[in-house]
Amino acid sequence: xxxxxxxxxxxxxxxxxxxxxxxxxxxxxxxxxxxxxxxxxxxxxxxxxxxxxxxxxxxxxxxxxxxxxxxxxxxxxxxxxxxxxxxxxxxxxxxxxxxxxxxxxxxxxxxxxxxxxxxxxxxxxxxxxxxxxxxxxxxxxxxxxxxxxxxxxxxxxxxxxxxxxxxxxxxxxxxxxxxxxxxxxxxxxxxxxxxxxxxxxxxxxxxxxxxxxxxxxxxxxxxxxxxxxxxxxxxxxxxxxxxxxxxxxxxxxxxxxxxxxxxxxxxxxxxxxxxxxxxxxxxxxxxxxxxxxxxxxxxxxxxx
Length: 304
Fold this sequence. Notes:
Layout: H1 10-21, E1 28-32, H2 39-51, H3 63-69, E2 76-79, H4 89-99, E3 109-114, H5 121-132, E4 138-144, H6 152-155, E5 159-162, H7 168-177, H8 184-190, H9 194-202, H10 204-216, H11 222-228, H12 230-233, H13 239-257, H14 260-277, H15 282-303
Parallel strand pairs: 1-4, 1-5, 2-3, 3-4
C-alpha cells in the first residue's frame, strides 16, 4: 500500500489512497499539521505516486521513480525558505517559470512548497495567479503548520488535509525500529513529533544528566547540586526545553504521589522561565532555580 513506509496518520493514508484508486487527485493541496510529524514525507510520497509511469502508485522501478528517489527528477520541485525566515516572491516566480513548461519525462509535474506559511504576502499573491489557473498537468502541495498566515484566497483554492500528532505507541514503534531508548517522560517531550524524537536521540545524554540532577535533589548538598549541574549553566540557548523537561518529570510525579513539593517545583520552573525571558542574569537564575527546588525536596524530607 502507498505511504506504508510512513508512520502515523492512517486516516490521511486512507484518504489519499482512495483518491489515487479512483483517480480523483486535485491540482492544489494544503497539508496542515504540527511540525515534525511527517507532512513533507507524505507530500514527497504523493509526488512520486503522481509522477510514476505506472498506475499502481509508486512502483519504485520505472524511470520516473528511480529519478525521484535519486533526487534528480526534472518534473519535480521542492521550494523552501532559504534563510529560515521567509519564502520570497523570487522563489515563487521561479516556480511559475518551471510550471509553465510541459513535463519532460512524466505526464505530470509536482511542486511542493514546504513551510508555505513563511511565504511573504507578495509571494502568496504571486502564487495565487498559478493556483487560479493551474496547468492541467500540474499539482501543487503546500505544506504548513499555521494556516492563519495564508491568504484566504489561497486556502479556498486548495484541498485541505489535516495531519495529527503521532501517538505515543507510534513514536515507540519508530523508536524501537531505530534503536532509540525512550520512556514515558521522553515521549512527553516529543509531543507527537518524530523530529523531536530524532532530536532526542542526539541529546539523550543531556536528559540522562537532568534525571541525575533530579534524583540528587533529595540526597546531595546544594553545593554538590550546583557543581553537578554544568549542563544547565552551559545550555543557555536550549534552557527552555531543559526546564520543560523538569516540569514534565514533576507533573508525572505529582500524578503518582500528589505531593506538594512537586506543585511548588512546577511553579519554580515557570517562574525561572519568566525571569530568563526578562533577561535576568542567567547564572544567578540557574543558581536560584536549583536552590529553591533543593529546598522543596529537603524541607519535604525534614517534614516527613
